[in-house]
Design brief:
DNA polymerase, domain 1, alpha+beta, 43% helix, four-stranded mixed β-sheet, Alpha-Beta Plaits, six-stranded mixed β-sheet
Length: 523
């Protein structure tokens, strides 16, 4: 799977198992009620006091491409990354095309399918940023899930303006299969009124997304993240569903365990193999039996609570990105030359994304590379400190060259390049982001080589091996060469002396200690 496909697996969840209607997943024999009387440990601490909205953009990547080219709106459209259709619009889905299908299979089902390359995620990130800025105009409590999905806790918003939003629930209401719904039959009118106001707010947010950005979306409204997410998947596309507390047990009992958010495929498989495929089956299991099946008390407890509809997890406001990461997956990479070529491309894209998103606000302090070998699901990772000077120069080509050198050095630590290797994935990342300060700028002026200045090692040594002979073993040559000539000379003279004396001199000088730490290799 490709770079963007891997990224989109993290940033755009797989909605395939969520698009089934209840009529497709409900088995009459399985629609048993959950336990009428729950033990005290299974009672939610928050009850029905919260109001959570889940927003999910319809076929996000495809919608962005249709915004860029409106002539595609009524044509079957798929977003291609290498040989995979990672997503498609609803016109294509009506023709039998599904997400994450092979291009060859999709073309057989829909010969006139229009395919657009989607490896470059920049346009999708741009639209995603606008989307989340709009949502944050309603509340600060917005938890971002990938590029196209989020939770909003609008409890405080409704408590302030709820009296101005009186009326019935907007959109669909899950009624547990009852043919007619009567408000008078709802035992908790306060909860109903709160959810009604929340549904009106959700409709307003969805309307703003459509009018301002041009995106249609689905929404789920409930008193927990679990039920809001389930509700948001029930009436796709371009619709919203409200889940009333009195019907939550009935709703969950209709679902298979694998359709419950945050219950992974491994747990679902274990439960299915043990004969417990539906939520209603698991909800009736003794807790100790569940522990035996899943092999862990914590996992069993989480699954037990979710299958009983209990989710007190908070909406955690999303802040600035904690890292920037770009990766590429492929069938084979055997040579150092090919690995370096792929690294050059990845580093260029990583630097472009960093500057596009950060707008010169923060700088990364650490570089990390991860590789995956053939026939392995595990990744080998190495990381090191990034020289401050890289991000203080305005010359982007110099920056890119330096970054490529750092990642190539890390690659040699993650792999023994002298031996045969077979890679199927490379990931490069900037981590440890920190705000830029005036101190950073001053340090850079101190370390920055003057125009046209050449590294003392570059001028006096013709090969890396010769350079290594003049440096201590724990010093990274590529980082050392970024230092000004006078600093290099001073340090080389210092390292010529006996180790003990050199250590005393460095330790007695705080600047020297910082310099050595600045370009010392990390294990």
């Amino acid at each position: 799977m490709s770079t963007a496909a891997r990224t989109s697996d993290q940033e755009e969840k797989d909605e395939a198992e969520w698009t089934q209607t209840l009529s497709q997943v409900v088995s009459p024999s399985k629609k048993t009620k959950l336990m009428a009387i729950q033990p005290p440990a299974l009672i939610s601490k928050l009850g029905n006091s919260r109001l959570i909205v889940h927003i999910d953009i319809d076929c996000f990547y495809a919608q962005v491409e249709m915004l860029r080219n409106p002539s595609l709106r009524d044509r079957p459209l798929g977003i291609q990354q290498k040989n995979i259709v990672v997503t498609c619009n609803y016109v294509a889905r009506a023709r039998g095309v599904s997400k994450l299908s092979l291009v060859s299979e999709a073309k057989l089902k829909c010969p006139d399918l229009v395919l657009i390359r989607g490896e470059d995620l920049t346009p999708y990130r741009d639209v995603s940023h606008k989307m989340f800025e709009l949502m944050r105009s309603y509340t600060d409590k917005v938890e971002r899930l990938g590029l196209d999905e989020c939770f909003l806790d609008v409890t405080d918003v409704i408590s302030r303006i709820g009296d101005k939003m009186q009326g019935a629930i907007v959109g669909h209401i899950y009624t547990g299969g009852e043919s007619a719904f009567c408000v008078d039959s709802v035992p908790d009118r306060d909860s109903y009124n709160r959810l009604a106001a929340g549904s009106q707010l959700a409709a307003k947010i969805r309307s703003d997304l459509a009018d301002t950005i041009g995106l249609t979306s689905c929404a789920g409204i409930a008193h927990s993240k679990l039920l809001a997410k389930v509700g948001g998947t029930m009436n796709k596309p371009n619709a919203q569903t409200t889940i009333l507390p009195i019907y939550s047990d009935d709703l969950l009992s209709c679902l298979k365990v694998g359709q419950i958010p945050w219950i992974g495929s491994k747990c679902s498989k274990q439960l299915k193999e043990a004969g417990f495929e539906f939520v209603s089956d698991v909800a009736l299991l003794p807790h100790d039996k569940l522990v035996d099946i899943l092999g862990g008390a914590n996992t069993a407890q989480n699954v037990y609570l979710l299958c009983h509809g209990i989710d007190d997890s908070e909406v955690i406001p999303s802040g600035a990105a904690k890292q920037y990461s770009i990766e590429d997956s492929f069938q084979e990479c055997f040579t150092v030359e090919e690995a370096h070529h792929r690294l050059d491309t990845l580093c260029s894209r990583l630097l472009e994304r960093y500057y596009h998103d950060e707008q010169d606000r923060r700088i990364p302090t650490t570089a990390r590379i991860s590789v995956r070998k053939h026939s392995s699901y595990h990744r080998e990772s190495r990381q090191c400190a990034l020289p401050l000077a890289i991000f203080q120069t305005s010359n982007r080509k110099e920056q890119l060259d330096a970054i490529c050198s750092v990642f190539k050095s890390l690659l040699s630590k993650a792999l023994d390049l002298k031996k045969p290797f077979h890679l199927t994935l490379i990931n490069v990342a900037f981590t440890g982001l920190k705000l830029k300060t005036s101190t950073d700028s001053n340090l850079y002026k101190f370390f920055r080589p003057s125009a046209g200045q050449q590294s003392i090692l570059s001028s006096e040594s013709s090969t890396m091996s010769e350079s290594n002979k003049r440096l201590p073993k724990d010093i990274d040559v590529t980082v050392f060469e970024t230092l000004p000539q006078d600093i290099q000379t001073e340090l080389l003279e210092r390292w010529k002396k006996p180790a003990v004396i050199a250590a005393k001199q460095i330790n007695s000088n705080s600047t020297g200690t910082g310099i050595k730490r600045y370009f010392t290799r990390k294990a």
